[in-house]
């Protein structure tokens, strides 16, 4: 069976979006990739969505190139083979559906621009959505306490991760909104947080509850560089200071802490106390 080459995909796409250049050793695929990139830019997708769609496209074009297929002459069977390979990989069902959705969108664009004789609607008239995979999961208060109690807040990284997870747990913020949070979004006098959501671009007003207020103060005083003039809260700790956008891609940290909490703490019958509860007592003294 044909294979899909995944090595270096993310880095290559990120470099292309930053500095341009060529990803393939043939003009045809390079031109298709650049044209679709321009189409996505004009469609007003956020940067992360464009990056995600380009990664999907890069894998498809790389697959075609590796197996000596041409987009202009490719058959439905060869495209279905590609989908079969995707389905056989260790991806969740919902992620496979996202891949199919992006493939359908790209092929519709390619068909309209005379790059393909097969449109996405011809190949995938209807993508079956597995609704059970979209059921939102949640954690109980006790589970969140167990999760947060295993984070080592004595280290700088621990303090940073603890603040990030706290903002997500207490306010229900997306990781993208947390990482893009700015100093100007926080009003310590009124105890409020106001931000433009990164994904929806909608305005959001939230209370700066006492626990988060102390965590933010602790982070700004003891972790974030004091001489950094950037407005972003989460910045790199070494000069030249930059917005630490890479934190967005560290969702695995939360998963690791969850696994650690369940594997260690749930097996031991010990009283649990959130680190911020201890810190609150110290601040009140």
Outline the fold blueprint.
Blueprint: H1 9-19, H2 27-42, H3 47-66, H4 76-88, H5 93-112, H6 120-123, H7 141-149, H8 156-171, H9 175-179, E1 186-187, E2 192-196, E3 203-207, H10 210-222, H11 251-264, H12 275-284
Antiparallel strand pairs: 1-2, 2-3
Helix pairs in contact: 1-3, 2-3, 3-5, 7-11, 8-10, 10-12
Shape: elongated
- Content of β-strand: under 5%
Number of strands: 3
* SS field, number of helical segments: 12
Mean pLDDT: 81
* Rg over C-alpha atoms, rounded to the nearest angstrom: 23 Å
Order of strands across the widest beta sheet? 1-2-3
Multimeric state of these chains?
A: single chain
User: Structural class, from helix and strand content?
Assistant: mainly alpha
Order of helices and strands: HHHHHHHHHEEEHHH
Uncertain residue ranges: 265-285
Largest β-sheet summary? 3 strands, antiparallel
Helicity range:
40-55%
Query: Could you tell me how far the N terminus lies from the C terminus, measured between alpha carbons in angstroms?
Result: 67 Å
How does this structure look, described?
The structure is a single chain. A hairpin with a 4-residue loop joins strand 1 (186-187) and strand 2. The protein has 285 residues and is mainly alpha-helical. It contains 12 helices and 3 strands; from the N terminus they run H-H-H-H-H-H-H-H-H-E-E-E-H-H-H.
Quick structural summary:
It contains twelve helices and three strands, in the order αααααααααβββααα.
């Amino acid at each position: 069976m044909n294979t899909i080459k995944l090595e270096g995909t993310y880095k290559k796409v990120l470099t292309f979006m930053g500095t341009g250049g060529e990803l393939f050793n043939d003009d045809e695929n390079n031109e298709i990739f650049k044209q679709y990139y321009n189409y996505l830019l004009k469609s007003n997708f956020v940067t992360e969505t464009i990056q995600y769609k380009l990664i999907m496209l890069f894998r498809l074009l790389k697959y075609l190139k590796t197996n000596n297929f041409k987009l202009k002459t490719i058959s439905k069977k060869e495209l279905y083979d590609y989908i079969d390979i995707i389905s056989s990989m260790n991806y969740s069902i919902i992620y496979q559906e996202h891949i199919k959705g992006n493939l359908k969108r790209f092929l519709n664009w390619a068909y309209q621009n005379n790059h393909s004789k097969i449109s996405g609607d011809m190949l995938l008239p209807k993508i079956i959505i597995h609704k059970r995979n979209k059921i939102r999961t949640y954690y109980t208060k006790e589970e969140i306490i167990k999760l947060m109690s295993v984070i080592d807040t004595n280290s700088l990284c621990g303090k940073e991760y603890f603040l990030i997870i706290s903002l997500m747990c207490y306010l229900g913020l997306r990781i993208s909104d947390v990482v893009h949070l700015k100093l100007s979004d926080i009003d310590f006098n009124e105890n409020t947080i106001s931000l433009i959501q990164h994904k929806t671009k909608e305005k959001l007003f939230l209370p700066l509850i006492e626990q988060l207020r102390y965590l933010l103060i602790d982070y700004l005083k003891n972790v974030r560089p004091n001489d950094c003039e950037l407005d972003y809260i989460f910045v790199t700790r070494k000069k030249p200071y930059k917005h630490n956008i890479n934190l967005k891609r560290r969702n695995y940290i939360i998963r690791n802490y969850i696994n650690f909490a369940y594997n260690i703490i749930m097996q031991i019958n010990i009283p649990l106390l959130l680190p911020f509860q201890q810190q609150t007592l110290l601040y009140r003294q």
